[in-house]
Amino acid sequence: MNFPGTCTPGQVCGTDMLITDALLGEHAVFHLMLGSIEQSLPALDSLSNLQNRIAAFAFALESHAGLEDELLFNALEPHFGTQSGPLAVMRMEHDQITDLLGNIHSASDLDSARAFAKQMIQVTRGHFQKEEQILFRMARQFLSEEELSALGAEWAKQRTPLVGLDMP
Ligand SMILES: [Fe+2]
Predict the structure, then answer these.
(1) How many domains does the chain contain in total?
(2) Residue range of the domain that includes 80
(3) How many whole angstroms from 106 Cα to the centroid of ligand 1?
(4) How far, in Å, from the CA of 24 to the mean position of ligand 1?
(5) C-alpha span between 88 and 81 (Å, rounded)
(6) pLDDT in the model for residue 160
(7) Are residues 155 and 22 in contact, defined by beta-carbon separation less than 8 angstroms?
(8) Cα(121) to centroid of ligand 1, in Å?
(9) Which of the four pLDDT bands, split at 50, 70 and 90, describes residue 10?
(10) pTM, whole model, 2 decimals?
(11) Residues 72-96: pLDDT tens digits?
(12) Residue 74 and residue 89: Cα distance in Å, rounded?
């Protein structure tokens, strides 16, 4: 496998990573973060502590959802449409999670922020489960290996750290 930025002249550059595998890998990290946030919720004793605890997660999840929508959902639109069906449901849930994260950010007291956080964890886990068990499987049925791989290469390109990797 070649990573972007590590190709030498004459070498075929690309990645064997399928977009569905890349997104599943990101989900695995978010599951860990959700577990960690959930564990820490009872002990967070001020509104700002709770908001700070969730801020990095919110930033990373927004990036993940945006990339998922741009790369995978857009590629599935010709197969599933946008007005109803799985993509409409997944996009609606992305908005729901964004709204809950916004509610946490703008909450005026600790108890309501904690309640929004619990709801956000539950909704996000349910959403991930649907993507992992239904949508990503459908994607592997409706998109060819080449399409999934090309989208995986685009994912790798967009995830390349801004500092650049100078790997041997
Ligand atoms: Fe999603």
Answers:
(1) 1
(2) 19-159
(3) 23
(4) 10
(5) 8
(6) 85
(7) yes
(8) 13
(9) very low
(10) 0.87
(11) 999 999 999 989 899 999 999 999 9
(12) 14
